[in-house]
Amino acid sequence: MIFNRSDESTATRTSTRVARALETYRSVIACHDHIARGSGVHSLTAALMLPCYKAEFRNLVLAMTPEEERELRYALDSICETAA
């Protein structure tokens, strides 16, 4: 299969947006973990940052193409399977 520059940049952009969404999702999980543990200052910081991370994740998902959403869903499914 031959890729030209436009395919390459689209794939890179897709992977970048999905990677950012996954990183933000991990931050949401970490915030929930700190809040659940009630670890003093860290839980307060997590409680303050959680809405920001959720909003960032939502905005990233809303800006995604169907292919990016599918890639994100597969990645999130694998994260959930690992946690179970």
Any low-confidence stretches, pLDDT <50, length ≥5? Answer: 1-6
Give the integer mean of the pLDDT values: 85
Structural class: mainly alpha
Return the domain count: 1
Report, as a whole number of angstroms, the end-to-end distance.
37 Å
The protein's oligomeric status is single chain
The helix content, as a percent range, equals: over 70%
Query: What is the 3D shape?
Result: flat
What's the main sheet like? Answer: none
Structure description:
The chain is an all-alpha fold. It has one domain. It is 87% helix and 0% strand. The chain is built from 3 helices and no strands. The longest helix has 33 residues, at 5-37. The protein starts with a helix and ends with a helix.
Question: Quick gist of this model?
Answer:
It is built from 3 helices and no strands.
Describe this protein with a few key phrases.
mainly alpha
Write the layout of secondary structure elements.
Layout: H1 5-37, H2 41-62, H3 66-83
